[in-house]
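Action item from last meeting closed. Structure (152 res):
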């Protein structure tokens, strides 16, 4: 089954890959390794802002992380000239969670991205991961995630 077909089964339509907001590129390909720049939490309604432990709970944070993973796949598709089936596997994610000093559930928040990638890609979605706290993130978003992927 193609990745796009699986995404459709999940009710997910990938957005167009977003353009960089500053002096960087959205992805770099080095051989068969693809490095995707940090994708900030947003959906069809705009930016998903909030601070975990203050005005956002883990469930909402995980939903924001899921949106970051969707944006990562949109960048993979763009890097693969529209052919998402060139994706071999997710290798590593680094998740940043906008959270208070006493918030300790960053891994549960980033699970929103990890769970989505496994749901969409099966075993190819299993990856190494870091999940860390940040005192703030760009534009006040709740989550930012970058990723490393293996492609054909």
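Sequence:
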């Amino acid at each position: 089954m193609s990745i796009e077909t699986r995404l459709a089964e999940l009710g997910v339509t990938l957005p167009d890959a977003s353009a960089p907001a500053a002096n960087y590129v959205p992805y770099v390909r080095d051989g068969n390794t693809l490095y995707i720049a940090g994708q900030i939490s947003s959906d069809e309604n705009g930016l998903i802002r909030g601070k975990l432990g203050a005005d956002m709970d883990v469930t909402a944070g995980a939903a924001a992380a899921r949106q970051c993973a969707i944006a990562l796949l949109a960048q993979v598709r763009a890097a693969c000239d529209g052919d998402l089936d060139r994706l071999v596997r997710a290798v590593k994610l680094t998740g940043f969670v906008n959270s208070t000093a006493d918030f300790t559930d960053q891994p549960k928040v980033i699970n929103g991205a990890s769970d989505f990638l496994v749901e969409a890609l099966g075993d190819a979605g299993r990856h190494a991961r870091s999940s860390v706290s940040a005192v703030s993130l760009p534009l006040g978003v709740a989550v930012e995630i970058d990723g490393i992927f293996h492609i054909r």
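Note appended to the action item: The chain is about 30% helix and 30% strand.
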